[in-house]
């Protein structure tokens, strides 16, 4: 009887331990954001500049912005994603503002693919994003929202921008190889050598 009682006690302790571990894992999934788990049905909630910066840690997840975000605390923003790790998820800004995005690398000849996002893949969607008061100085391929688009961008708005570089400089995207629909930009764009545009620097697709 004592052995049986000990076995039951150990089983109860094991179950409690597993429940605690599961709760810890669940909490770990959401501490970088205001809520959510990153799925289509339960997207990560982006409420602060820190939340937005953490998007880079979950490039295949789904996000919804819940508050206006001021990026003035980031004096030289690092684009979300890299050449080898593109953003493949979805980001819905719900029309809320992202302001004061700054990238200052005009004197760096190796600086390329600069924007809020580095590159988005064919499966990615950026929608309902409102960017305001953006300042980008770089060398090659830049856009306020994304440097290179291979995915879908829709219903995004860019105002009060200043974007300057040498080639492939766009108000919304530097290079477009995907789909852009229902977007608007009112920006100052300049390229020292070639290919600049208010919406895209170089357009390869629709």
Explain the overall architecture.
By secondary structure, the protein is of the alpha/beta class. The protein contains two helices and 18 strands. It folds into two domains: 1-31; 35-203. The chain has helices at residues 2-30, 49-54, and strands at 44-46, 62-65, 69-70, 90-92, 97-99, 102-104, 112-114, 117-120, 125-127, 130-137, 140-143, 146-149, 152-154, 157-170, 173-176, 179-181, 184-197, 200-203. The protein is globular.
Helix content: 10-25%
Strand fraction: 35-45%
* Alpha plus pi helix count: 2
What is the structural class? alpha/beta
Sum up the overall morphology in one term. globular
The biggest beta sheet reads: 8 strands, parallel
Quaternary state, please? single chain
Low-confidence stretches: 1-28
Radius of gyration: 21 Å
| Total number of beta strands | 18
Could you say how many structural domains there are in total? 2
Order of helices and strands: HEHEEEEEEEEEEEEEEEEE
- First-to-last CA distance: 75 Å
Report the mean per-residue pLDDT as an integer: 85
């Amino acid at each position: 009887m004592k052995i049986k009682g000990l076995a039951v006690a150990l089983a109860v302790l094991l179950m409690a331990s597993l429940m605690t571990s599961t709760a810890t894992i669940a909490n770990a999934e959401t501490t970088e954001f205001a809520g959510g788990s990153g799925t289509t049905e339960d997207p990560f909630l982006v409420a602060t500049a820190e939340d937005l910066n953490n998007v880079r840690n979950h490039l295949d997840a789904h996000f919804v912005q819940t508050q206006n975000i001021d990026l003035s605390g980031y004096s030289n923003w690092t684009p979300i994603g890299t050449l080898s790790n593109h953003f493949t998820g979805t980001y819905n800004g719900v029309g809320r503002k992202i302001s004061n995005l700054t990238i200052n690398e005009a004197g760096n000849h190796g600086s390329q693919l600069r924007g809020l996002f580095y590159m988005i893949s064919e499966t990615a969607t950026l929608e309902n994003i409102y960017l305001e008061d953006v300042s980008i100085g770089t060398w090659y391929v830049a856009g306020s929202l994304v440097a290179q688009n291979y995915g879908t961008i829709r219903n995004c708005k860019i105002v009060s921008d200043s974007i300057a570089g040498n080639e492939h400089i766009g108000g919304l995207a530097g290079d477009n190889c995907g789909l852009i629909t229902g977007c608007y930009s009112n920006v100052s764009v300049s390229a020292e050598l070639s290919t600049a545009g208010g919406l895209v620097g170089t357009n390869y697709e629709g």
